[in-house]
Amino acid sequence: MTTATAQPTRRTQAQRSAETQGLLLDAALDCLVELGYGDTTTTVVAKRAGVSRGAQLHHFPTRASLVAAAIAHLFAELTAEYQRAFTAVGDAKDRLPAALDLLWSMFTHPRYPAVTELHTAARTDSELAAALLPIAENHRANVHRLAAEYFPAAARNRARVDATLAMLLNAMHGMVVSWESFGDGIDIDAEREVFADTALILIANLERDGLS
C-alpha cells in the first residue's frame, strides 16, 4: 500500500511579499541603530536583509519611504507590547506608576535610537520629514488614545491632557537623546526618579480635576 506524501504548502504572493518587507524593515532599523542615518543606504539595507536590490526598490523605492515604514513598523510593535503589558496591571493604585514605567520601556527599547536618529536627520531633509510626519502623528494619537482608555477621569479635559502628554513625551524623548550621547556623564536613575515624581503629580492632578 502506497502512502501519499504530503506536499509542502506553497506560500502565496502576499505572504512572500510580507516576508520580504519584514526583512527589509528589520534590517533598516538595525542599520539605523548601528550605522546611523547617513550610512543606512537602501543598498546596505537590502544586503543586510538578504533581499535583492530589485525587490527592495519594488517595495520601497526611496530611502525615505523605507526608513519611514521601518519606524511605523517599530511604533506598531511598541504600542502592541505596551497594551499587552498593561493588561497585567491590576491594582488601581499601581496604574499610574506602571503606565509610566511601561512608557519608559518604549523610549528605552533597543531600537528606539532609530527614531532619534531620524528625528535629527529630518530637520534638514524635507523628504524624510514629510514621510515621517504622519507616522509620528499617528503614534502620538495612539499614545493619547491609550491614556484616555486607561485613565478616563483625567481624559475628560481633553485639551489639557493632550498638552500634558505632549510635554511628557517630548521630555522623555529629549532625555533619551541626551542619554544616548552623554549617558556616561549623566545620573540617569536620578533624572528618571525626578521625572517620575513630576509626571505622577501632573497626571494625578488631571485625574482629580476630571473627577471634580
Describe the structure.
75% of the residues lie in helices and 0% in strands. Helix 1 (13-35) packs across helix 2, helix 1 (13-35) packs across helix 6 (113-122) and helix 4 (63-86) runs antiparallel to helix 5. The model has no long low-confidence stretch (mean pLDDT 89). The protein is globular and about 55 Å long. It has 212 residues and is an all-alpha fold.
Short description:
With 212 residues, this protein is mostly helical. The chain has helices spanning 13-35, 42-49, 53-59, 63-86, 95-107, 113-122, 126-150, 158-182, 188-211. 75% of the residues lie in helices and 0% in strands.
Explain the layout of strands and helices.
Elements (H helix, E strand, L loop, with lengths): L12 H23 L6 H8 L3 H7 L3 H24 L8 H13 L5 H10 L3 H25 L7 H25 L5 H24 L1
Helix pairs in contact: 1-2, 1-4, 1-6, 2-3, 4-5, 4-7, 6-7, 8-9
The helix/strand order is: HHHHHHHHH
Mean model confidence by pLDDT: 89
* Counted beta strands: 0
Shape: globular
Reported for the largest beta sheet, the result is:
none
- What gap, in angstroms, lies between the N and C termini? 80 Å
Number of helices: 9
Strand content: under 5%
Alpha-beta classification: mainly alpha
Roughly what percent helix? Answer: over 70%
Mind telling me the C-alpha Rg? 21 Å
User: Segments where pLDDT lies below 50 for 5+ residues?
Assistant: none
